[in-house]
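Supplementary Text 2. Reproducibility record for the structural model of the 265-residue chain.

All settings were left at their defaults, and a single model was retained for analysis rather than an ensemble. We include the record here because the model underlies the residue-level annotations in Supplementary Table 4.
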Amino acid sequence: MTINISSKDNERVKYTKSLLKSKNRQKESKFIIEGYRILTLAIECNADLDYVFINETFENKEEHKNFLKVLEEKNIKIFKTINKIFNELIDTENTQGILGVVRFKEKKIEHNIKNEDKFVLILDRIQDPGNMGTIIRTADAAGVDAIIALKGCVDIYNPKVIRSTMGSIFDMNIIHCTQEECLRELKSKDFNIVSSYLNTDNYYHETDYGKKVALVIGNEANGVNDELIDESDILVKIPIYGNAESLNAAISSAILMYEIKKYLS
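Retained model, structure tokens:
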């Protein structure tokens, strides 16, 4: 059953709009996903979908009508509103006319790094939403077992991050913790901490990584923080053959992830 909402003062509308702010996402443990494709991926991945909003034109396509039937079969509430109100609930200009609100749970590192895990990604103050989303998507493609987002990273439930993950947000084991908790847990499980660092003679493709690797990707402007560098077991760099000063964080992470995955395989 679809419930029609025509007032911007409706409590469901106001609540959904509040989730565009990070502090409210964290307080409510919910975030917004927008677009038909990512909604279908959420269903396929059994994401904890709370409810859905559609605009007044979404049902014009037959495949969209069929998708709404799937939602109804799963007892997911559907709210329909006018385009003007719907557009206030999203941060994109070209909408597909559907959004969903998804519940999430914060994960404790001690319970979510398994003994059989061999490859973990540590993100140190990654700030750009596009970079964060691309890194999550690439980690999914490269077979990374878990991602640890340290304090200072952009909110992974930022709508721009969610779009950039292209659905990988539902596949990846993503953990938030302090740097101290991260290092303690990973060292206790015999991970080698590997940091990307320019001032080393070790090239990434000539390195012995060991059996279990935790790769650190640092802040876009400042790189990996000094304390993490000091705690690292291995420092590696990617050669620069041209005149560029450095590589984009997402690009460098992709190069390193695939090299390490090949090494561990």
